[in-house]
Amino acid sequence: MRSATGMTAPVSEPVIAFVDVTKSYGDIKALNAIDFAIGPGEIVGLLGPNGAGKSTLFQIAAGLFAPDAGTVSVFGLDYKANASRILADLGVVFQARSVDLDMSVKANLVFHGRLFGFSGKDLAERIAHVTELLEIADLLKRQVRTLSGGNQRRVEIARALLNRPKLLLLDEPSVGLDAVTRRNMIAHMQKVRDQSGTSILWATHLVEEVEQADRIILINKGDVLENATPAELMARAGVNSLTDAYIALSRLAPGAVVPGMQG
């Protein structure tokens, strides 16, 4: 599999692979032959403007939608025949809040853990681990609605990590959060990867969130434009910042001229 730059992406033993994935809504094509994969322990940013196709791709990755054409495999399996096996090793944080605001942090985590079949000492240890990792152990007794937006997000991420997923999907996880909280969230996700080897697909339109990613999938209007490291993207665009590379390579800047690209 090759990126838009012609470079071979690291796809040996991928945790998730998209092959020619296409999805349309009536006459509107949301995804056009998407083709990339994520390897074990990679943090990959899915970067693009609103309406680029990120959410559609995310929903396909999470098994909520099926592509019109092409295939998606997670841990080498397809959703049609292996949904329960995939979901057992998958963590998902959706853009919209999904925790119960009227329950305590602990109650939310216990309820979710039991859905995975965890109980007793095992569940207690899992809750202790994820809340310590995300620095919310002191909030376990608090009702979720009394927490800040950033801490509510941490609860959702903690919940997604209870099953110790091999792959964590994050869809615009920092929407509505301030810059400091976003920075802390990025640090926590790097810690998750470093401690557990979890692969992370982070969908966002905010460049700063994926500056430290191993690779960035640059998507716009349903097409993958680039699949490369942040340094490679900056070199490709001939600029010194990832933000400038994003603007140039996604063709968002009126009249932007990018070496080697047509149109």
Low-confidence stretches: 1-11, 253-263
Q: In what order do the strands lie side by side in the largest sheet?
A: 5-6-7-3-8-9
Proportion of helical residues? 25-40%
Assembly of the depicted chains = single chain
Our estimate of the beta-strand percent is: 15-25%
By DSSP (H or I, 4+ residues per run), the number of helices equals 8
Kindly state the number of beta strands.
Answer: 9
The mean pLDDT is 88
Rg result: 19 Å
How would you describe this protein?
By secondary structure, the protein is α/β, with parallel strands linked by helices. Helices cover 34% and strands 22% of the residues. Strands 5-6-7-3-8-9 form a six-stranded mixed beta sheet, with helices on both faces. Helix 4 packs across helix 5 and helix 7 (230-237) crosses helix 8. It is globular.
Topology:
Elements: E1 16-25, E2 28-38, E3 43-47, H1 54-61, E4 69-74, H2 79-88, E5 90-93, H3 105-115, H4 120-133, H5 149-161, E6 167-171, H6 179-196, E7 199-204, E8 215-220, E9 223-228, H7 230-237, H8 242-249
Parallel strand pairs: 3-7, 3-8, 5-6, 6-7
Antiparallel strand pairs: 1-2, 1-4, 8-9
Helix pairs in contact: 4-5, 7-8
Gist?
Helix content is 34%, strand content 22%. The two termini are 24 Å apart. The relative contact order is 0.17.
Keywords, separated by commas or semicolons:
six-stranded mixed beta sheet, alpha/beta, 22% strand, disordered N terminus, three-stranded antiparallel beta sheet
